[in-house]
Write a structure and sequence with these properties.
single chain, 395 residues, alpha/beta, Alpha-Beta Plaits, Rossmann fold, seven-stranded parallel beta sheet, five-stranded parallel beta sheet, 10 helices, 21 strands
Length: 395
């Protein structure tokens, strides 16, 4: 664990370190630099000190007392006037994990109007929904949101903190992990909780060649981000349980160094993550024009279409219609893959689909390991035949 130290005998009090510090963590007192509680040990001051008076020290602390950190906390994201669906998925997974060790599942909501959604979460089995609802939180500011969630974590001391891997969550989670000087695993596809309360965070690694199992054994809390459509949401219960806890925003949040001038909503777009039926084209397609039959089949089925990463890299498609770790995660009722080999990066983001049909000429293709129906054959024969039969049924 890193710490920052100032050698007073070398410090000239020039103030350059304080000027460069993004956290306002250095004060100049009595002609010398002095660290305050805002220090995150980022090391920027070390790089900018002309006298080499600021040092970064690497220390190793004893393991944390795990018995003092309990329960599972879900950051329930409220943005655009709605509760992001990934929040319910994380609550569902949290409840599943909590059974193994006798934990409770709690939620924290931040933002103007967040209190409107806290009561609804009581119908999904959370024991406590903590709310930071204030005019100063009318738009997302990473430092302000992080301060609010940090405040509740220090109060509740959860063992595990789950955050959705949304654009907001990906900005928030690393800031929180840095503040607690603990670990964070991004884009987890599976989570398991050991009897000793260590969270096993599973995700593809080394270019998708292995599924890494990552644990945060020495520190708490344990942070993980999970993509939308990876976990199952719980069933809404008619009777509410748990409590709603209103908390005041921490001191200094209203005086954030970041100011929001205006908010311009992005027009809603249709996402492949919300499709019930998907037809996917892979590397087996010979030319860009062949995507037309993928689109046509999807249209006849009343669904949407997507591709794998190789076709995006060729410029045939955009990232918005890509399935995979660098694209989207999907869980449709039916997915038909055409010429898709089935690399881990792809299957990890679609293997939760209800019914998987795979078409590939290679009988040993990895996609067949996750497919419910395996069709060994040429997509240029099978897809046109499917299109022909669907058209016949309509006449």
């Amino acid at each position: 664990m890193a710490k920052i130290a100032v050698l007073e005998r070398k410090c000239t009090g020039c103030g350059l370190c304080a000027e460069k510090c993004p956290f306002g963590a250095i004060d100049i007192k009595g002609g010398k630099a002095e660290l305050n509680a805002n220090c995150r040990a980022c090391g920027i001051c070390v790089k900018n000190c002309p006298e080499e008076a600021v040092l970064r020290l690497e220390t190793r602390e004893d393991s944390v007392d795990k018995s003092k950190w309990n329960d599972i906390l879900v950051f329930a994201e409220v943005s655009g006037g709605r509760l992001h669906p990934v929040s319910l998925e994380l609550i569902g997974k949290g409840r599943e994990l909590a059974k193994n060790v006798g934990y409770q599942v709690k939620a924290v909501l931040v933002g103007k109007g967040a209190a409107d959604f806290a009561e609804e979460l009581r119908h999904y089995g959370v024991s406590e929904a903590a709310v930071y609802d204030d005019e100063a939180l009318f738009c997302f500011r990473a430092d302000a949101y992080a301060s609010c969630v940090e405040d509740y974590i220090r109060y509740a001391r959860p063992s595990v903190v789950l955050v959705g891997a949304t654009s907001l969550g990906r900005s928030l989670a690393p800031r929180l992990a840095a503040r607690f000087r603990t670990g964070l695993t991004a884009d987890c596809t599976r989570l398991e909780l050991r009897g000793n309360t260590d969270l096993v965070q599973i995700r593809p690694a080394f270019g998708g060649n292995i599924m890494a199992q990552i644990i945060t054994a020495r520190t708490r809390p344990q942070f993980a981000t999970v993509r939308y459509k990876v976990m199952d949401p719980p069933v809404r219960e008619e009777e509410a349980s748990g409590i709603v806890l209103r908390r005041a925003i921490p001191k200094g949040v209203a005086e954030s160094r970041v100011s929001c001038v205006s908010v311009l909503p992005i027009p809603p777009k249709k996402s492949i993550s919300d499709a019930d039926i998907l037809v996917v084209g892979g590397r087996g397609l010979r030319k860009e024009a062949d995507l037309d039959m993928i689109r046509e089949l999807a249209g006849l089925l009343g669904g949407d279409w997507a591709t794998t990463r190789p076709l995006v890299e060729k410029g045939w498609n955009t990232n918005e219609r890509q399935i995979g770790l660098s694209g989207r995660t999907v869980r449709p009722k039916l997915i038909i893959t055409c010429g898709v080999s089935g690399a881990i990066q792809f299957t990890a983001c679609m293997n939760g689909s209800e019914h998987i049909v795979a078409i590939n000429t290679d009988k040993n293709a990895p996609i067949f390991d996750v497919a419910d129906v395996a069709v060994v054959g040429d997509l240029y024969e099978i897809v046109p035949e499917l299109i022909r039969r669907l058209k016949e049924d309509r006449t």
